[in-house]
């Protein structure tokens, strides 16, 4: 920035609208599925169906078959990446980003299981695990059992987790398909995609993708998104090609110069997001999308439910409850919602039910805030 030019402060409302614009949540867009997933910098996919709901809320005329085709066609894959969690990403992002995020996987292994692997030759374990899953896709349990034949003094689950952390494994269909059932089966990304991992991946390029999908954002926000540490120096190297802002608390934010930053009063429609949507997981400070009093939206068993955006902010959680008589959408409010604001929620909720369960009876009910 030119010397002496003051750094603009962005309000929470301004950050909200900038984020919604990049997340394709201000209006549904006409966009190919693979392109959309890349624009979103991947979609977290703890379960198979949430990415379908996430794309339905963002794309015009989206149906489940579009995404399932890209998964079976190996143009999209489910692989552990950001925060060492399972993500749906394009094939090229999987190959480029896994090497950059390998340290995140290894740190997670050290935190959870490494103490139970004392004495194991990890190079030999990786080689054996890779050979097994490339011979045929295996579940985590079967992989562990087969590895335990060679390392019988170790727990199968520990051996399996080590391979899943140290080897870039993808989950193969039918896991990840709409309505697909069965265990998660794994093989290596290289075997499934027929290509090697990127040998010269660019961390700067990945962080630009993050800003394109989630900016303006702080260094700590980016670290929260990907799980890497000590990114300040990387952002400083990039700073000549970025613009800087501050939030209302004075935290420095980085952004791409030409990225959209709509006016804070830009209308934002009601949107239903799937479980574990990255909109809620990609910032250390989530006030741009959810009020501080509602930050702990996790369920009693630690799951992050689907959420409802009203005027751009999370106002409720939702879940679909199939029953014998009707498929019901339960909308659980986080705070009282004015009656006039409920009509668009009901309309979008009914459209969601038609997407999720067409041709059957539907019901919708609100659960009032405590």
Any overview of this molecule?
- This protein has 370 residues and is an alpha+beta fold.
- It has two domains: 1-296, no CATH class; 297-367, no CATH class.
- Helices cover 38% and strands 17% of the residues.
- Strand 12, helix 13 (339-356) and strand 13 (362-367) form a beta-alpha-beta unit.
- Helix 5 (91-112) packs across helix 8, helix 6 crosses helix 8 and helix 7 (140-148) packs across helix 8.
- The longest helix has 22 residues, at 91-112.
How does the overall form come out from the CA principal axes?
Answer: globular
Q: Which strands sit side by side, in order, in the main sheet?
A: 2-4-3-5-6
Average pLDDT, rounded to a whole number, is: 94
The radius of gyration computed from the alpha-carbon positions, rounded to a whole number of angstroms, is 22 Å
Query: Into which percentage range does the β-strand content fall?
Result: 15-25%
The tally of strands reads: 13
Number of domains: 2
Oligomeric state: single chain
> Which spans have pLDDT < 50 for at least 5 consecutive residues?
none
Q: What is the overall number of helices?
A: 13
Question: What is the H/E order?
Answer: EHHEHHEEHHHHEEHHHHEEEEEEHE
* C-alpha end-to-end distance: 48 Å
Largest sheet: 5 strands, antiparallel
Helical content stands at 25-40%
Q: Structural class of the secondary elements?
A: alpha+beta
């Amino acid at each position: 920035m030119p010397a002496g030019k003051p750094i603009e402060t962005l309000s929470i409302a301004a950050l909200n609208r900038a984020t919604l614009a990049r997340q394709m949540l201000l209006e549904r867009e006409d966009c190919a599925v693979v392109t959309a997933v890349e624009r979103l910098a991947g979609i977290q996919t703890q379960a198979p169906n949430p990415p379908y709901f996430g794309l339905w809320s963002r794309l015009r005329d989206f149906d489940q078959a579009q995404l399932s085709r890209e998964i079976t066609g190996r143009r999209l894959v489910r692989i552990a990446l950001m925060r060492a969690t399972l993500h749906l990403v394009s094939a090229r992002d999987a190959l480029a980003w896994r090497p950059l995020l390998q340290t995140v996987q290894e740190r997670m292994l050290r935190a959870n299981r490494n103490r139970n692997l004392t004495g194991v030759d990890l190079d030999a374990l990786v080689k054996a695990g890779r050979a097994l899953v490339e011979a045929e896709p295996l579940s985590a349990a079967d992989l562990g059992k087969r590895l335990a034949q060679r390392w019988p003094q170790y727990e199968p689950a520990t051996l399996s987790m080590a391979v899943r952390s140290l080897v870039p494994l993808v989950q193969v269909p039918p896991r990840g398909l709409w309505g697909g059932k069965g265990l998660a089966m794994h093989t290596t990304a290289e075997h499934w995609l027929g290509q090697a991992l990127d040998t010269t991946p660019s961390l700067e390029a990945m962080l630009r993708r993050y800003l394109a999908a989630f900016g303006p954002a702080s260094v700590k926000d980016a670290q929260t998104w990907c799980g890497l540490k000590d990114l300040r120096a990387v952002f400083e190297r990039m700073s000549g090609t970025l613009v800087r802002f501050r939030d209302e608390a004075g935290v420095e934010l980085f952004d791409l110069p030409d990225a959209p930053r709509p006016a804070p009063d830009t209308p934002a429609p009601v949107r239903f997001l799937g479980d574990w949507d990255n909109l809620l997981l990609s910032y250390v400070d989530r006030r741009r999308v959810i009020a501080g009093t509602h930050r702990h939206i996790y369920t009693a068993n630690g799951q992050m439910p689907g959420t409802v955006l009203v005027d751009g902010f999370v106002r409720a959680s939702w879940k679909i409850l199939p029953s014998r008589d009707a498929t019901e959408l339960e909308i659980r409010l986080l705070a009282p919602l004015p009656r006039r604001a409920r009509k668009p929620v009901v309309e979008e909720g009914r459209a969601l039910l038609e997407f999720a369960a067409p041709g059957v009876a539907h019901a919708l009910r609100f659960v009032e805030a405590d």
